[in-house]
Write a structure and sequence with these properties.
Rossmann fold; alpha/beta; about 425 residues; six-stranded parallel β-sheet; single chain; about 50% helix
């Protein structure tokens, strides 16, 4: 099988390559194509990838290319990890909304909307090339943010796609370390939407240990999630750290007005990583990569790919259509829940109803995501304003009117 990585010049790529080096032979992966439009980045990252694969003894074929068609030709799996506009666009998304009192964040709120408007059309064009060039049963695994909106658009167009985020696997690993057990023994009941989830149960060998975990490790978990310990205890759940943008809105906005944007820090980390990647003696992913935010990405991606290819039928937390799994949401809403993975894709497991305090927010953001996909397709002024008005971190008419210009959103209608 051939794997194509679109956005292969990303500094995340060595994380993925390490997983393919370890598991590629078992998966029958005999070809890997790294595609990126940035020649310098793809050559630097591709050079490290080649050294890593050679050092591992992997005998497959590596292609580093700027041609999407060449990368996709005959691929059995396509991983999307692109960032349209690069880090400069991210910095803009994180800072421009502050002018009208909105939080700046690359995956949610006004900044996340701007990213979706840039990204969805590009991803849909790539997906059409997948349809023409890749294997008839090829899977698209989307790691491109905002994952919920991008994957929803892919599924609306009939593509074989599953969304993936590393929040669940990262939290699973942290919890396993806290309680001193193997990660494979820990199963999370993580439910909601991408970047809007709660862990309602932590099953260890079939027993829910979340109450005990919160009781014993509440302060440490609250510090990691940047949320009050009392919130964890009263809800009896572990919110995704992205919920801080909703639960501590005023505090976050004040911080963003005075502190360095995350995008600036990431840009420095990326520059240092690329400097390290140029070292001809480097043959493994550097520890600094963990600070980039892609921890356990390779394991999550390889696990998902393995189950899609082999039909393993195991349970993983992924982003897929609701299909009745979460009561109170439409079947075609894009949810992030435990799902059984086989050759036919992700089959979400039925979940108990969300607590009203969770359900209200999830329904609100799900409605926004539906409108955001439409706005990314039509690019009409009315659809853009409706999407912004629907988001709980915007929600005011004057903001919905002024934000498109602040965010440099092109409102020319697409054919």
């Amino acid at each position: 099988m051939k794997i194509a990585v679109i956005g292969g010049g990303s500094t995340y790529t060595p994380e993925l390559v390490s997983g393919i080096a370890a598991e590629g032979a078992a998966l029958g992966v005999d070809a890997l194509a790294l595609m990126d439009i940035d020649e310098e980045r793809r050559n630097v990252v591709g050079g490290l990838a080649r050294r890593m694969l050679d050092a591992s003894g992997w005998g497959g074929d590596l292609t580093v290319t700027g041609s999407t068609d060449d990368a996709l030709e005959g691929a059995g799996a396509v991983l999307l990890q692109l960032r349209v506009g690069g880090q400069a666009a991210r910095l803009h998304d994180e800072t421009a909304p502050l002018a009208c009192g909105c939080i700046g964040q690359e995956t949610t709120g006004a900044g996340g909307f701007a990213k979706a408007m840039r990204t969805v059309p590009v991803v849909l064009d790539i997906a059409e090339q997948v349809r023409r060039r890749s294997a008839a049963d090829a899977w698209i695994i989307d790691f491109t943010n905002p994952v919920g909106i991008v994957t929803r658009a892919l599924l609306e167009d009939g593509h074989r796609a599953v969304g993936l985020c590393n929040v669940a696997i990262g939290l699973q690993r942290r919890i396993a370390a806290l309680i001193g057990t193997e990660p494979a023994r820990v199963q999370l009941e993580q439910v909601g939407l991408n970047h809007l989830t709660w862990v309602r149960a932590v099953h260890v060998d079939g027993t829910d240990r979340l109450p005990e975990i919160i009781d014993r490790h509440g302060p440490a978990l609250a510090e990691q999630l940047h949320l009050p310990e009392e919130l964890l205890r009263e809800t009896g759940a572990l919110p995704s750290y992205y919920l801080r943008y909703f639960y501590a809105h005023g505090q976050v906005l004040a911080e963003q007005r005075t502190e360095e944007p995350r995008a600036a820090a990431v840009a420095r980390i990326e520059a240092e990583l690329l400097r390290m990647y140029r070292d001809p003696d480097l043959t493994e992913k550097p520890a600094l990569l963990e600070q980039r935010g892609g921890a356990f990405y390779s394991e999550a991606a390889v696990d998902l790919l393995r189950s899609l290819v082999t039909g393993a039928g195991d349970v993983q937390v992924v982003d897929t259509r609701n299909n009745g799994a979460l009561p109170g949401l439409a079947d075609d809403d894009l949810v992030e829940v435990p799902a059984r993975i086989d050759r036919d894709g992700a089959h979400p497991l039925a979940q108990s109803p969300l607590d009203p305090v969770m359900l209200g927010l999830v329904q609100h953001v799900a409605a926004y995501e539906r409108l955001a996909v439409r706005a990314a397709r039509t690019r009409s002024t009315a659809d853009v304003r409706r999407a912004l008005l629907a988001h709980p971190l915007v929600g005011e008419w004057e903001m919905a009117v002024s934000l498109p210009e602040l965010l440099d959103i092109d409102l020319e209608a697409r054919p």
